Amino acid sequence: MSAAPPDLRFDGRDRFVRAVDAAVAHGDAHAVTAALRGALCGLIADPQVRLPACIHAPIADRYARRELYRSPGYGYSVVAMTWGPGQGTPVHDHSGLWCVEGVWSGSLEITQYALVERDAERFRFRAAGGVRAGTGSAGSLIPPHEYHTIANPSPDRTAVSVHVYQAPLLRCARFVHERDEWYLRTDAALGLDALD
Questions:
Q1: What is the pLDDT of the chain when averaged over all its residues?
Q2: DSSP letter string over 64-114?
């Protein structure tokens, strides 16, 4: 895994960056994420914006994370994720960062989790709703409401999502199911896959 080059070019990149910059300029997390949801939906539908071809190639044993852009002025990071059939995440957080996620192609199942109780490194979660998000849709996470899973429910189609994080997401907590509603917290370093 490696970081994306800072000068990565793709069709409509400047248009993409201008739209995200304008949304992030709102400052307040709620205003930013609301503006970003609208901006991502518009960018996904924009025929002038086309992600690099490699974004559509899944990795056999896990979902792929490829950084498209990192803002030198606002500090946010844009990561494209490629989900092969049936690939997904465990329950995880975003280390206290807001995030807006848009489905570029395919569909994803997102399940939110509410933290009910904590006992040191053991967490009790309860599913708090879910959605099947299709191409062109976008949602957001604002801490402390950041616990969730994402999965590609298709048995034969790849899905692609684009995530705008408040800052580069280099670590997160993942939660391993123990029993009932109890999970054990583990720290995870998050790498980036090469854009080739």
A1: 94
A2: EEEEEEE-TTT--EEEEEEE-TT-B--EE--TT--EEEEEEESEEEEEEEE
